[in-house]
Design goal:
32% helix; Rossmann fold; 2 domains; 5-stranded mixed sheet
């Protein structure tokens, strides 16, 4: 096959970036009057999720150190629903891959699947919260604010979701997702989040927004009665800063990797234009004919949920799968479709050739190809020659170099995107 000529481009978007994480968090916390919120010796639970939040270890450690200075006794609670195969040890392993351990943080990590019921939803389902968090003297809810992968609303993936789903552990996460199938995420998450706020001693929230270059753009703290309003404002920022593909029509999208640390669905549905969730409308753009996934991140621990959104993958990905971990996540999240396995072939080259063979009456040289590292890091990407005329007309796209024909190494592995 004569593969198309490729070009390396950079998305040049003017977005904010925080230069000092520690100074920003200290400044934000100084507005909360911690002395009035924390009694000496108070046991404070801090939520830690499974997403690949940039500087997550530094952000957590800074929060911990400031709480200690205010005479609190902090500890970390994994708040990731059913991730880590829905087990306490599995969630500790995920945190370890993010450099979050008892040694690096200097506080205990209390991981358990035990939950307590703190209420009943308007739809008649139990509202469950991690036992360690529910029995703490105070809770700090921390999460990245971003677009959700399965719905649109005033708030999506952030503080309220962290409480409703993350703190619910496996059982609570399952109860929430059962309701979303019939009543919608945009109704269920705010209701359950509000009930949790009223029922356990949440002290404050820490919302994080990242820019297109996967850099920390904003950190904002808020008191419990400000959660919804603050998260809604931060979500607007996140939408403005988020990474997007610069083209609406693509014949083949190639991803070097997917993974749970990148997105809850392995690859961000807002980027690829495929949602695959009952009751939710598919996006109008982008329109991508074929998606090829070449690898699974180690931080996913075998959970390739979202692989069902791809058309082709490699045996390398299949060999890394933990079917049990992926099944647990897919069943709990009510999305078995996202655990379906695409056509898998021996090598990158064979998987990509198969994609070219299934895009219809389009010659490889004329195909609109976009090659990215993953759906989180898209500041730099490779595009085929067929997209260059359009790229030159777009503001914010800069040509870095002509790569030449799409090339593979001696093991038929595609040369990865060089960020």
């Amino acid at each position: 096959m004569d593969f198309p000529r490729m070009h390396r481009i950079r998305q040049t978007i003017d977005t904010p970036k925080i230069n000092s994480i520690k100074d920003t968090i200290s400044k934000e916390l100084s507005t909360l009057d911690l002395a009035s919120l924390i009694c000496p010796g108070a046991r404070i639970a801090i939520t830690a999720g499974s997403r690949g939040i940039n500087h997550i270890d530094l952000i957590l450690k800074t929060l911990i150190d400031i709480l200690k200075k205010n005479k609190a006794d902090p500890f970390i609670v994994p708040a990731m629903g059913s991730h880590g195969n829905g087990t306490a040890q599995g969630q500790i392993d995920i945190l370890k891959s993010l450099n979050i351990t008892q040694d690096t943080m200097g506080v205990p990590i209390l991981s358990s699947m035990e939950v307590v019921q703190i209420g009943i939803s308007s739809h008649g389902f139990p509202i469950l919260v991690d036992k360690h968090a529910a029995t703490a003297d105070g809770v700090v809810v921390m999460n990245r604010i971003k677009l959700h992968t399965e719905f649109e609303g005033p708030i999506e993936s952030g503080l309220m979701k962290m409480m409703a789903i993350g703190l619910g552990n496996h059982k609570g996460c399952f109860q929430v997702h059962k309701q979303t199938v019939n009543f919608g995420y945009s109704n269920v998450i705010p209701e359950i989040g509000a009930t949790i706020l009223d029922s356990i001693p949440v002290l404050f929230g820490v919302g994080i927004v990242e820019n297109i270059y996967d850099e920390t753009a904003c950190i904002k703290t808020c008191l419990p009665d400000q959660f919804y309003e603050t998260e809604a404002l931060l979500l607007k920022k996140a939408k403005n800063y988020m990474a997007r593909l610069p083209f609406d029509k693509i014949d083949i999208l190639i991803l070097d990797e997917m993974g749970k640390n990148i997105s809850g669905t392995g690859m961000d549905t807002n980027v690829i234009g495929r949602i695959m969730f009952i009751g939710e409308k598919e996006p109008d753009t982008p329109k991508i004919t074929r998606i090829v996934v070449l690898d699974l991140t180690e931080a996913s621990h075998g959970n390739a949920i979202g692989i069902g959104l791809a058309d082709f993958t490699t045996q390398k990905v299949i060999s890394k799968l933990s079917i049990q971990a992926m099944a647990t996540n897919a069943i709990t999240a009510m999305t078995p479709e996202k655990a379906r396995l695409p056509v898998s072939l021996d090598t990158d080259k064979k998987a990509i050739e198969a994609a070219f063979q299934t895009i219809g009456a389009v010659a490889p040289a004329d195909a609109r190809i976009v090659h990215i590292k993953n759906t989180l890091e898209m500041g730099t990407l490779n595009i085929s020659h067929a997209l260059m005329d359009e790229a030159k007309k777009r503001d914010g796209l800069m040509l870095l170099e002509d790569i030449g024909p799409m090339s593979f190494d001696n093991d038929n592995r595609l040369m990865p995107v060089r960020l």
